[in-house]
Amino acid sequence: EIAELEFRKTFNLCLAKGVTLSLTDRFKKKVVEEGFNPIYGARPLRRSITRLLEDSLSESFIGSPVAEGEYVIVDLNDSEEVVVLRQQLRREAAEDVAESPGVALGEQVPEPTPA
């Protein structure tokens, strides 16, 4: 629950830039596992989100500038490394996805390419 609230902050930052963000369940599980610490509360979780999600997004956006209407999926590869997949959506698909940011991958989304 706390993780979802923290993820929502990043979703909102991306939406403000015209980017729709989606996280796979596998990625979310890794963030929570690495950030879980009952003694220190949410601080380690926040650091885990910063390191795994926000830093990965930043590196991807530096490598290739953000385009409004872009759809970004964050997942893990077979080696459990973070992978940021980016795809420019058609206008109709972007509107459908924007109505429910952060949900599971939509069927209307074309296959993204690694950034």
General description of the model:
This protein is of the alpha+beta class and 115 residues long. The protein has helices spanning 2-16, 25-35, 43-63, 91-98; strands at 19-23, 70-76, 82-88, 113-114. A four-stranded mixed beta sheet has the order 1-2-3-4. A hairpin with a 5-residue loop joins strand 2 (70-76) and strand 3 (82-88). Helix 1 runs parallel beside helix 3. Residues 101-112 have low confidence and may be disordered.
- What percent of residues are in strands? 15-25%
- Can you write the helix and strand succession as a string? HEHHEEHE
The helix count comes to: 4
Q: What percent of residues adopt helix (DSSP H or I)? A: 40-55%
Straight-line N-to-C gap: 29 Å
- The counted number of beta strands is 4
Backbone structural class: alpha+beta
Q: Biggest sheet, strands in spatial order?
A: 1-2-3-4
- Specify the overall morphology: globular
The major beta sheet can be summarized as: 4 strands, mixed
Mean pLDDT: 82
If you compute it from the alpha carbons, what radius of gyration comes out, rounded to the nearest whole angstrom?
Answer: 14 Å
Give the low-confidence spans.
101-112
Could you give a short description of this structure?
48% of the residues lie in helices and 18% in strands. The chain has 115 residues and is of the alpha+beta class.
Characteristic terms for this protein:
alpha+beta; 4 helices; globular; 115 residues
Topology:
Elements: H1 2-16, E1 19-23, H2 25-35, H3 43-63, E2 70-76, E3 82-88, H4 91-98, E4 113-114
Helix pairs in contact: 1-3, 2-3
